[in-house]
Amino acid sequence: MMMGGDMSREEMANALGVGLKTVDSHRLTLLGGLGLANAVQLVHFGVRHKLIRISTK
């Protein structure tokens, strides 16, 4: 599951049929559009807005 963070960049690229640079470009676009500085802030945003669910297995 992409949103859950269970996939590497390579796995995401393969699942979407795009290249690694495209995956990175989309991540940077999200960061910029949301006014975030890094991936940690992006994950925090996802959790806060219930786009990502944290499992406590």
Write a structural description.
- The structure is a single chain.
- It contains three helices and no strands.
- It is mainly alpha-helical.
- The chain has one domain.
- The chain is flat.
- The two termini are 16 Å apart.
Domains (count): 1
Q: Tell me the strand percentage band.
A: under 5%
Helix content: 55-70%
Q: Tell me, rounded to a whole number, the average pLDDT.
A: 88
Can you tell me the residue ranges where pLDDT is under 50 for at least 5 consecutive residues? none
Alpha-beta content class: mainly alpha
How many helices? The count is: 3
Gap between N and C termini:
16 Å
Radius of gyration: 12 Å
Largest sheet features: none
Question: What is the number of strand segments?
Answer: 0
Helix and strand pattern: HHH
Oligomer: single chain
Overall form: flat
Give a brief rundown of this model.
By secondary structure, this protein is mainly α.
